[in-house]
Amino acid sequence: MSYFNNPQTEEELKNQYRRLLIKYDYRSDKNIKIIEEIRREYNLLQMQIKRANGYRTPTEKIYDEVKAFTKEVGEAHRAEEQRINQLKNHTYTKAEIQSLIEKTKSCVDKIVYSIVKKQLVPYVSLHNVVARCDSEQICRWFNTHAVSAVPVNLHTEYDEVREKLEYALKSRSNDKKSQEAFMVQMEKMIGNHIALVFRKYEDELIDPIVIAEQDMRKYEEKRSSQKGYDFARIVFVGLWIVIVLYALFEGLTNKHVSMSTSLILIAISTVGVYLMYFLMIKIPRKVNQAFEKKTYAGIGNRKHNSRMSEKKQYQSDRAKNSLIQFITRFFG
Which ranges does the record mark as transmembrane (predicted)? Predict the structure, then answer.
């Protein structure tokens, strides 16, 4: 049985609801069942009117947002996959490869000029990298550290041109070893160009006194560290000499200590002093050198790529897409 007369708006529904409550005397216990039926029908009609006006529940809103996001991610993924396929399947001529090399060098020029001119955060580190590292390490450090400090438009332009150059060089051979060799050659070329333009802009834009003071500070730090190691070495050698002299003195003057015992004591003390020197001086020094090399060389070994490979990127996007689809099905 329907108590309401086809209301079209929420206001009409509420007015009919008030009249029905008064008609069936909502205070009386006799009409409790009727009032409950009226309330259920009121709630149902209210939701129908709201939905007709575009109302969505919080759960449905989340579902709509996840669905829209899934569609957006899928479209972006398909567009990126199409773009990568175009780069991979394009036949690059020597002129195009040479043009990409020149564009890459031009982007490097702009980035290095921006870093040196404004003396951005990576400037001092780049100065040390160029002074200490080889061309491959310079390129890898540059790709992972220096580029992130410059304006987004320079960063994006460099990444796009370098990506095209990578695919262009890879297209020259189907052999993985040859492709790896081409990538190494590209890194060497970019690293050499970075060092060249950095020294050029540093000479043009930076006061020589500033550069000399930076180099002098580094030299003083290294010299101070070396003095500490030299002093420690003298201390350990002096300790060993004292122990040897004491052992010989005991062996010659003390009747209860034989010369063979003194020689054994000298041998044990020699091994002990060397182990102490090795553990307290040599190992920390090696660790410090390794840490310093890692700091200035950037990331990883020769086979490390500055960006995630397209295969890993594809797998990552597929995993994200699968998770979003699972959430969509869960809410659905």
Answer: 231-249, 261-280
